[in-house]
Design brief:
The chain is an all-alpha fold. Helix content is 75%, strand content 0%.
C-alpha cells in the first residue's frame, strides 16, 4: 500500500491524507504500481465523461476530459515532452559527444522554446481530436480507451526505465533506471494484464456493453507495438543524449497515449 501511495504522490496531484516520506529506493520500487495510478486516472476520466456529457456537447466533453488528464498529472509529463523536443531541435555541430552535452544542457534550462511549444500544441490537439473521434465509436471501445490510456502510458514509462540507461549522474531518471529490475517489469505487466481482462469483464457483465470478438487479439498487438516503441525510443535517446532522463520519460508517456488512441481508432475501423 505504501508503494502505491508513493507512486500516487509522485505521478499526480491527487491529494492524499499526508505526505509519505520515501527514499530513492522506495521511489524506484513504487514503479510496480504505476499502472494502478493510471487506473485511478482512467476512472477519473470516465467520471468526467459521465458528468460532463449530461451538460455539454461531445466536442466540449473531449476537451474537459483532456483537461482533467493534464491537471491530474500536474502537467508533469507535458513539461518533459516540451524539454525533450527543444533539445532534439539542436542542430548538430559535427561532434556527437558535444552535441549530447548541449542537448542535455538545453533540457535543464527550464524554459520552453518554439519547438517544445509546437510539440505541446500537436500532442494536445491530436489527443483532443482522437478522443472526440472515439466518442462516436461503440461504447466499450470508448470507455475502455478512457480507462486504459493512462494505464498503458504508465506501463510504457516502466518499460522505458527497464530498457534505458541514465544520461547523467544526477537527475530524476537516474533514480529509477539504476534500481528498476525484472521484478518491477513482471509485477507491472501482470497488473496490466489483469486490468485489461477485468475491464472487459466488468464492461460486458455489469454495464452490458458489447465487447468485440477480436478485442484480446488487439491487446496482444498493442502491447507488442508499445514494447517495440519503448525499445526503439530508448535506442534513439541513447544515440541523441547518451541515455535517458526524467524529461524523456514524460515524453514517452505523452507519445504512448497518442499511439494507443490511434491504434484503437485504426483497429476499430479496419478490423473484420
Amino acid at each position: 500500500m505504501k508503494r502505491f501511495l508513493i507512486a500516487l504522490q509522485f505521478l499526480t496531484i491527487i491529494p492524499i491524507k499526508k505526505n509519505i516520506a520515501f527514499d530513492e529506493d522506495s521511489l524506484a520500487k513504487s514503479t510496480s504500481f504505476f499502472v494502478l495510478v493510471g487506473l485511478l486516472q482512467g476512472l477519473l476520466l470516465i467520471a468526467t465523461d459521465y458528468l460532463a456529457r449530461r451538460i455539454f456537447h461531445s466536442d466540449l466533453v473531449a476537451g474537459l476530459i483532456l483537461l482533467v488528464l493534464v491537471l491530474s498529472n500536474g502537467g508533469f509529463h507535458l513539461d518533459g515532452l516540451s524539454d525533450t523536443f527543444d533539445a532534439l531541435a539542436l542542430k548538430s555541430g559535427g561532434d556527437a559527444a558535444i552535441d549530447k552535452q548541449k542537448r542535455l544542457a538545453i533540457m535543464k534550462t527550464g524554459t520552453a522554446g518554439p519547438i517544445g511549444v509546437t510539440a505541446l500544441f500537436f500532442v494536445l490537439a491530436l489527443k483532443y481530436l482522437a478522443l472526440n473521434n472515439l466518442s462516436h465509436f461503440q461504447a466499450f471501445t470508448y470507455f475502455s480507451s478512457l480507462l486504459l490510456m493512462p494505464v498503458l502510458s504508465k506501463w510504457a514509462i516502466v518499460m522505458s526505465m527497464f530498457y534505458g540507461k541514465p544520461a547523467r549522474e544526477d537527475g530524476l531518471g537516474r533514480i529509477f533506471i539504476n534500481r528498476i529490475n525484472l521484478r518491477e517489469i513482471v509485477t507491472s505487466t501482470g497488473i496490466l494484464l489483469v486490468l485489461i481482462v477485468l475491464s472487459s469483464v466488468v464492461f460486458s457483465r455489469f454495464f452490458s456493453l458489447y465487447v468485440p470478438d477480436k478485442q484480446y487479439i488487439f491487446y496482444i498487438f498493442l502491447l507488442l507495438a508499445l514494447s517495440l516503441f519503448c525499445c526503439g525510443e530508448m535506442m534513439f535517446f541513447k544515440k541523441k543524449f547518451g541515455g535517458l532522463t526524467g524529461d524523456m520519460l514524460g515524453a514517452t508517456s505523452e507519445l504512448t497515449e497518442i499511439i494507443f488512441l490511434f491504434m484503437v481508432i485504426a483497429w476499430s475501423r479496419f478490423s473484420i
